[in-house]
Amino acid sequence: MHRVAILVYDGVTLLDVAGPAEVFKEANRFGAEYLISLVSPDGAGVVPNLGFRMAVDGPPGPPADTLLVPGSDLFPRTPVPAALAGAARGQEAKRVASICTGAFILAAAGLLDGKRATTHWRVAHELAARCPSCRVEPDAIYVRDGATYTSAGVTAGIDLALALVEEDHGPDMAREVARMLVVYMQRAGGQSQFSAPLQGPAPRSPALRKITDLVTADPRGDHSLDALARHLNVSTRQLTRIFHDELSTTPARYVETIRFDLARALLDQGHTATQAAAQAGFPSYESMRRVFARTLSISPAAYQRRFRTTKKAHLEKPPPSPVP
User: pLDDT, tens digit, for every residue of 65-96?
Assistant: First the structure.
C-alpha cells in the first residue's frame, strides 16, 4: 500500500487536488495500491476555491509515501500562513510534490531550499524572490530534484502524477492510465503536446468547417489560397474575409498552424525532422524550420532534443540559471 496524503486548506484549487487524485485512482484499476487521504493543517474540513465545503480525513498523520501540496490563487498574492507551512513540514513523507503555486507552500516550509523547482510561469519570478536559494525553472512542466517534485499550472499536476505512477510502476501502467483519462502520457517540455485538429480554432459556419476539416484531414494536400477558395466556390478575397471574421487569421496562417502542430506531435513521437516536415505537409525542412524559429525561437532538431522523451532528464541536465 502506497499512502498519498494531499494537503488541503481554505482556498485550495480543487483541480490541483482532483487531477492527481484521479490519476492515482485510475492506477489502482491496473494493479497499483494507492491509498489517498486528504489532510488539513488542523484536521477540519476546508472550503476550496469553488466555494463548497470539503471534508478531510484529519490532520497530518503518520509518515506518508507521497505528500501532494496543491496550489491556490491566494499565493503568491499573500504570505503562506505559518500553520499551513508547518503542516507541509510536519507531514513526513518519502517524497514531496507540489502542484502549481503549491510550490510557495513548500518554499515557506523550507522544503525547496537549495533545490530546483518550478511553478506557474506567471509567478515564477515571485517564487525565486521568496526562495533565493531555489533555482526556479519557469519553462518546465514539472521538475524533480531528489525526492522533491514541483509542477507548473493546474493541469500539470496530471503530468506530474503520471510521472510518479511511472516511477512507481513503470511506463506501461502510466500509459494505460493516460489512455483511460484521455490525456497525453507526457506533454513535451514547457509546451503542450496536442493533436493538430484540436489546436485549430473552431469555426462557426459549416462552410468554413469544410475547409478546416479538409486541412486537418490531409495537411499535405494542396491548400493554397486559390485551391481552398475553389473548394468552396468563392473568391480568394471572400475566403480571406471569412477566415479573418471567424478565426482572426488568414487561410495561409491557419494551414501553417495545423502543419506546425502536427510536426510537433511527430517530433514528440520520435520521427526525424525531415520525416516530420514531409508528413506534416511542409514544402521542405527549411520551411518548417523557419516556422519553428518564428514560433518557438528554436529549430525542430533542438525542440526534439529538448522535449521529445517521456522521462525527461530533470536530474541529468545541468541546472539552468535561476530566474532573476
Answer: 999 999 999 998 999 999 999 999 999 899 99
Q: Which three cell numbers stand for residue 38?
A: 486528504
| Residues in Cβ contact with 321 at an 8 Å cutoff, skipping those fewer than 6 apart | 135
Is residue 87 within 8 A of residue 41, CB to CB? The reply is yes
C-beta of residue 103 within 8 angstroms of C-beta of residue 116: no
Per-position DSSP letters for 90-136, written without gaps between them: HS-EEEEEE-TTHHHHHHHTTTTTT-EE---GGGHHHHHHH-TTSEE
Distance CA(191)–CA(268), nearest Å, equals 11
CA distance 78 to 38: 23
Q: Which among 6, 12, 261, 277 is positioned nearest to 154, based on CA atoms? A: 12
Interstrand relation of 34-39 and 2-7 (parallel, antiparallel or unpaired): parallel
Give CA–CA dist 284/146, Å, rounded: 43
pLDDT at 237: 94
Question: Is the pTM above the cut of 0.70?
Answer: no
Q: Which of 150, 130, 132 is nearest to 140 (CA)?
A: 150
pLDDT in tens, 245-302: 888 889 999 999 889 988 888 887 788 999 999 989 999 999 999 999 888 888 898 8
CA 129, distance to chain mean position in Å, is: 24
201-244 pLDDT, tens digit per residue, is: 567 788 888 888 888 778 888 999 999 999 889 999 999 999 99
